[in-house]
Amino acid sequence: MATSSPETRRPVFRFAPSPNGRLHLGHALSALTNERLAGACGGELLLRVEDIDLTRCRPDFEQAIHDDLAWLGIRFDGAVRRQSEHFDDYRTVLGRLQAKGIVYPCFCSRQEVRQAVAAQEVETGRAWPRDPDGAPLYPGTCRSLSAREAEARIAAGEAHVLRLAMDRALATIGGALSYRVFGEDGAEQVAVAEPARWGDVVLARKDVPTSYHLSVVVDDALQRVSHVVRGRDLEAATDIHVMLQRLLGLPTPRYHFHRLLIDQTGQKLAKSRLSESLADVRARGVTAGEIRRQLGFA
Ligand code: GLU
């Protein structure tokens, strides 16, 4: 990089898809919004492949990402970062959080979490609190395991995830958490982050030393991303990212949350619902220019 002071550095944007399915029009909107906003301020645009899910990510999906983006005519700067090649980076940062005493191993299976939540609901007669994505908050079963018991279970090879002890993490931070959100016109607002509503989030999965939240924070910092442009479906999760940045002493980028595309049934486009892929759109004879126009980028 030619310049080093933060004031004179070019803004850095990134598009960060996961190769766990085919990209759809919603991804085109996200990539094109990044392209437009980066272009408007003379920023760089990076491509990051978020492939930490070793069971769901596939090489053919990854190749399709490159094909789709090339077809759309989006040019990226610098080298592509593939998260699966950087597990050591995430392990190192995880170690820093562990050293703060705000991470604990959790041996619960999904079913055990469901059962513990159901038991709480019966006992209290009230619905158990849910996170912004609708999943029940972790009921804390493993939070109070003694270090000795946890170590013994790990030594015995018991599968476990690593969770953030949200209360302790927030106590470490002390004050309120906020970040800057920018609009298409560049106007900025301050948003308040409320990570507590996510409970004890998973920072490292059973099979890999990281999670979406941890790797996205580490990579945005390592790649010096200054502007994160992502869909509104990730707005609430940004609270966790801002908290992790604060805990790790990393800079918080500015954020822009773009609209989501919905299908005829009123649901947001999603790989999991097999929304029509960009490859299928292309096969119907639609041109990239038509997609740009349809999405408002012509
Ligand atoms: N990899 C994430 C996805 O495909 C998005 C990453 C982000 O913007 O933080 O949904």
CATH architectural arrangement of the largest domain: Alpha-Beta Complex
Query: Overall mean pLDDT score?
Result: 95
> Quick one: biggest sheet?
5 strands, parallel
CATH hierarchy class name of the largest domain: Alpha Beta
Small-molecule binders here are: glutamic acid
Number of self-contained structural domains: 2
The secondary structure category is: alpha/beta
Describe the structure.
The protein is of the alpha/beta class and 298 residues long. 37% of the residues lie in helices and 15% in strands. It is built from ten helices and ten strands. Strands 3-2-1-9-10 form a five-stranded parallel β-sheet, covered by helices on one side. A three-stranded antiparallel β-sheet has the order 4-5-8. It is globular. It starts with 11 loop residues before the first strand and ends with a helix. Bound molecules: glutamic acid (GLU).
Features:
15% strand, 2 domains, Glutamyl-tRNA Synthetase, domain 3, 298 residues, five-stranded parallel sheet
Quick synopsis:
The protein is α/β, with parallel strands linked by helices and 298 residues long. It has helices spanning 25-40, 59-72, 87-99, 110-124, 147-155, 166-173, 212-222, 238-248, 278-283, 288-294, and strands spanning 12-15, 44-49, 81-82, 103-106, 161-164, 177-182, 188-193, 202-204, 227-231, 254-258. The chain folds into 2 domains: 8-85 and 262-298, Rossmann fold; 104-213 and 232-250, Glutamyl-tRNA Synthetase, domain 3 (Alpha-Beta Complex), CATH 3.90.800.
